[in-house]
Amino acid sequence: MDGEENDGNREENLLIMERKNAWNTYNETDVEKLEKVAKGYKNFLSEAKTERECAVLAVKMAKEKGYRSLEELQREGQTLKAGDKVYAVHKKKLVILYHIGKKPLEEGMNILGAHIDSPRLDLKQNPLYEDGEMALLETHYYGGIKKYQWAAIPLALHGVVVKKDGSVIELAIGEKPGDPVLGISDLLIHLSSEQLQKKAAVVVEGENLNIIVGSRPAEDSEDDKEKKEKIRSALLKLLEENYGIEEEDFLSAELEAVPAGPARDFGLDRSMVMGYGQDDRICAFTSLLAQLEAEDPLYTSVCLLTDKEEIGSVGATGMQSRYFENSTAEVMQLMGGYSDLALRRCLQRSHMLSSDVSAAFDPNYASAFEKKNTAYLGKGMVFNKYTGSRGKSGSNDACAEYIGELRRILDDAGVCWQTAEVGKVDQGGGGTIAWIVANYGMDVIDSGVALLNMHSPWEVSSKADIYETYKGYKAFLSTDW
Asked: Which of 10, 364, 399, 454 is 20 to 30 A off residue 253, Cα-Cα?
């Protein structure tokens, strides 16, 4: 009898710990609000496919809500006070928004930090060549990808070309209905008996991710009859005539090949979103939206949209740079309260949500997940106490006290949320920017939206999770610690 009672208690406890599906909590008004957020997100995802495009769109949205440039305020000798809104941009790839709170900055900030770079194919600096009666562009993949997923799909070319005189040419080829698309070929099934014996990691190798861009040779003239590589010559002529680009301009270009086409509803019930770059623009958008809708914050609220997370947060625009710290010092200076000690206190006393995606349970690959500790589509905002790999290597392990406070905040705000790990313990893992800001001594935890197909050309998310994460971020920014 005692054994049966213990089994019953265990089953009851498991049911208590199981998180409810957010869709079951909505009324008609909630669904209308959810669809409005999802529509804005799909537009954001479709319009901003590179970190530069994300930065431009974020600044545009911020200006519409009354944010002013930090550099502009400095030039004009302006000061900052509670209620003011200011943004800073670094090298057109990193954006920080500050909404000044009522409490002194020295008492800390509430920070939402996401990244706006995504896995992709970057063109090499000397990319154009001709082979087999075709013109191609060589690439170097960026971030963690399954290379075979990028073959035989339509690609678009986004980015900038900077000429020697400093002028900038912006490109986005392959997105409009009348645009041509580009692509990487795959070997036909009839000749792929050897290819199919290879491991997935080398079915398509990095040096074979070459994008086909043309096959029409230049028209012969008397001077051109002996000229070789006529298809390559024709492409160079097209680039110069249509875009003002010479071959040497590739040396100072940042051009990214990304999946062509807009984000779309996914599923017959339209409950999900499919689109490129949801890692991590899904968290960037929800963080940005929450920041822009914040009203009279007690603590200064911050939305930090950073770059280079997919390759370790390195470089001048990555989280390991000093730009966030330096910008916060500049804001303190405009408020009349800067000192090195005040800045250190501000950063240590801040609270942050490292807004990044998590892995959603996939029934097609159930063996990679541990069901009691994984995220599910539709069950709301996801918290990862730790990420990293194997023995929590490279992770930020959030404090239990901080998680307890967050539980209270979200439950009081009626937010659906769940906790997760990224797959089974020894299955793999990943990292975020959380460990970097944790170096300041602040409380930080990874939180965001669960994805299917993460790091693939087309990722999938739940509209309910997008909406609940947006609600959770809003509640976080208005918190009085």
From this structure: 454
